[in-house]
Specification:
Order of helices and strands: EHHEEEEEHEEEHEHEHEEHHHHH
Structural class: alpha+beta
Distance between the termini: 93 Å
Radius of gyration: 32 Å
Length: about 425
């Protein structure tokens, strides 16, 4: 669907406080975000947005598709719902963005929202590749997490779009959050440098960048280092003096041999690499790769809604013995076989392309090896020439020194000897 994943996150959503917000309002917030980008160019009516439908801009620059499996108890709700919003890049016209939302009902007033942002280049594009893109979560994710209308959580921890300050005397709360076995997202802890009293990265900027995929805690003072030592946090798990550490879910201070799982950047490393680069490395890892993800959804896109619908229909037909059901079931199997054959063909083409790329890299590698061999031969030759030149220079210097030591030129053979 797309060449590169730009951002993704999955978290649970429920109304904040005593609010009566529901599925309709959740879909409405997503639709409102699209409207702020597209204006009236797309028709986003609830009549189809809540169920299934498509709206395309007349100029083809944007598209919205929704699909759902309705809940048993309500025609205006859904057990599973998905939306895909595609649009052309406003600055680089050959790039197209695709944003997928998948919503799965967990309870009467709780849903799991999966968001995936990807981008791809036009299939026939040939030219200079666009530059590296920094991580940027969609505005709708920031609004859901930070606006206060919804409670967004990953396991037992409530997500924030700003850093949580660890106050002096409250370091035990940080320890509890790190070791909480029900925490299902990465926790980034930012300590303060002792000399300056300041963090070595920008905790607010980092928290905003990883909104929905993790949470940031920042020490209020460098004194927190002493508190963590007093609380007997093992040295292998600490992050003192400006260190930034990413604690994966499942942290257990009683298992020091697992401390390597919780990556860290020391003040020296941050100064050497720059704060922007370290923040970027953390953000790219948490929002683009799956190693830190412990919250998963059964539906992340409209494609998976179709797959689930076929599975449910197949299960229903298998329980019905009449011929009509058997014929429809056979048609489903044929369609699935055709779809899988197409996917297999595409995977085969991708495999061939990967093998061709590998062959090209092997040829480049062999060329580099030949260059290394040539350079090594040249280096040996020049090394030998250099040694010979040094020997001749030494003899010349000795001869010159001998000549300078003679005060009077010899006039006969005996004086020469």
């Amino acid at each position: 669907m797309f060449d590169s994943v730009h951002f993704r996150c999955t978290f649970d959503v429920s109304p904040a406080g005593n609010s009566t917000l529901g599925f309709v309002e959740l879909v409405g917030d997503i639709a409102q975000w699209i409207k702020t980008k597209e204006g009236r160019a797309l028709d986003l009516q609830p009549s189809w947005m809540l169920t299934a439908g498509t709206s395309r801009r007349p100029d083809g620059r944007a598209l919205v598709i929704t699909d759902s499996l309705p809940a048993q108890s309500s025609m205006t709700s859904a057990d599973t719902w998905a939306l895909r919003y595609e649009h052309q890049d406003s600055e680089f016209s050959h790039r197209r963005w695709s944003i997928d939302f998948g919503v799965v009902r967990l309870g009467e007033h709780e849903w799991r929202l999966a968001t995936t942002v990807g981008h791809s280049l036009h299939p026939s594009y040939m030219g200079k590749e666009p530059g590296h893109l920094p991580v940027t979560p969609p505005r709708v994710v920031k609004d859901l997490v930070g606006a206060g209308r919804w409670k967004c959580s990953a396991g037992s921890i409530e997500l924030k779009s700003s850093p949580v300050v660890v106050a002096v005397g409250k370091a035990d709360r940080l320890v509890k959050a790190i070791e909480d076995p029900l925490r299902a997202c990465a926790l980034v802890y930012v300590s303060r440098a002792r000399a300056s009293g300041e963090p070595c990265v920008d905790p607010a900027r980092l928290a905003s960048t990883i909104t929905g995929a993790g949470i940031v805690f920042v020490a209020a003072d460098s004194e927190i280092d002493d508190e963590l030592e007093f609380l007997m946090v093992p040295r292998e798990f600490r992050a003192p003096n400006g260190t930034v550490r990413v604690y994966a879910p499942g942290a257990d201070f009683g298992r020091p041999n697992q401390s390597f799982r919780h990556r860290f950047f020391t003040k020296y490393q941050i100064d050497e690499s720059t704060a922007i680069e370290v923040e970027g490395q953390i953000a790219r890892s948490l929002t683009r790769r799956q190693g830190w993800v412990h919250v998963h959804s059964s539906v992340t896109s409209v494609d998976e809604i179709g797959t689930r619908r076929r599975e449910l229909r197949r299960a229903a037909l298998q329980s019905q013995p009449n011929q009509e059901s058997k014929d429809e079931l056979l048609k489903l199997f044929e369609d699935d076989n055709e779809r899988l054959s197409k996917e297999l063909s595409e995977m085969g083409k991708a495999k061939e392309a990967a093998e061709q790329a590998a062959d090209e890299r092997d040829m480049q590698l062999e060329g580099l090896r030949e260059e290394i061999r040539t350079a090594s031969y040249g280096a040996d030759f020049f090394r030998s020439e250099s040694a010979d030149a040094k020997r001749k220079l030494t003899l010349a210097l000795q001869a010159g020194e001998t000549a300078r030591s003679i005060r009077q030129l010899p006039s006969n053979v005996a004086e020469v000897v």
